[in-house]
Amino acid sequence: MDPITETAEKHNIPIIEDAAQAHGAKYKGKTVGSLGHISCFSFYADKLITTVEGGIALTNDQKLAEKMQLLRSFGMTKNAKFEHPILGYNYKMSDIHASIGIAQLQKLDKYIKKRRSNIKHLKQQLSEPTLKLPTEQNYAYNVYYVCNILAEKNRNQIVRQLEQHGIETRPLLSFIPEQPPYQKYAPNPNKLPVARKAHQNGFYITNSPFLTQNELEYLATEITKAIHETKK
Predict the structure, then answer these.
(1) Per DSSP, what are the bridge partners of residue 204?
(2) Are residues 119 and 224 in the same domain?
(3) Residue 176 shares a structural domain with residue 214
(4) 128 and 205 fall within a common domain
């Protein structure tokens, strides 16, 4: 048992697993979303499958499920109309959005297969030593939600060059200790060099399952050109 799980069990604290972008991924043979007491998936438009907006929370714990159902629907109990034993929210998903999600779920395996194929192709085409492309550890099954890239240097120049050629990029992540709402809670940023480096040097491009072979070739070509341009 890892230290986090051990502490949670000792103090009877449920572990909430953030699986927002990991539909179908696996960790040590277990499907992501089955590792915590509660797991959360996002179905926003750019995720592996979508209901256009919204998400889902999963649990095997009956008491937690009942509490989550109360929170989902204004804190209103099923036993009596308009009785609210707790303060709740309006987190219900409409039937139309749920129907879209059910149809999308049937396509998940196909989408994952194509995303994995995209990354395999890009890694074969991009052999630049100054770039780190997505990897998969021997204990994991990566669904490659996006193509995340870590540049050894010149990240901003590379990004500008790509966007000039019609390739949209996004920052890899935000550096939480420097975000205003969290500064008083966060540890010293200097003690988090790995996260800071990922924030400063990382970016990502699309890994849509609808990318064509020509589009993949274009991505590989333009990334290689951008690297060479920044070396001049």
Answers:
(1) 148, 170
(2) yes
(3) yes
(4) yes
Query: Quick check: 223 and 162 in contact, CB under 8 A?
Result: yes
Count of domains observed in the chain: 2
Tell whether 18 and 71 lie within a shared domain.
yes
pLDDT one-digit tens code per residue, 189-225 = 888 999 999 999 999 999 999 999 999 999 999 999 9
Would you give the DSSP letter of residue 13? -
Q: Helix and strand tally (H, E) in the chain?
A: 7, 10
151: pLDDT strictly greater than 90: yes
Short-list 3, 43, 1, CA closest to 19: 43
Question: Per residue in 96-106, pLDDT tens?
Answer: 999 999 999 99
Interatomic CA distance for residues 68 and 33, integer angstroms: 16
- CATH number for position 42: 3.40.640.10
CATH number at residue 222: 3.90.1150.10
Contact 119, 4 (CB under 8 A): no
d(CA 11, CA 200): 37
3-state secondary structure 184-226: CCCCCHHHCHHHHHHHHHEEEECCCCCCCHHHHHHHHHHHHHH
Residue-range definition of the domain harbouring residue 216: 113-231
SS3 17: strand
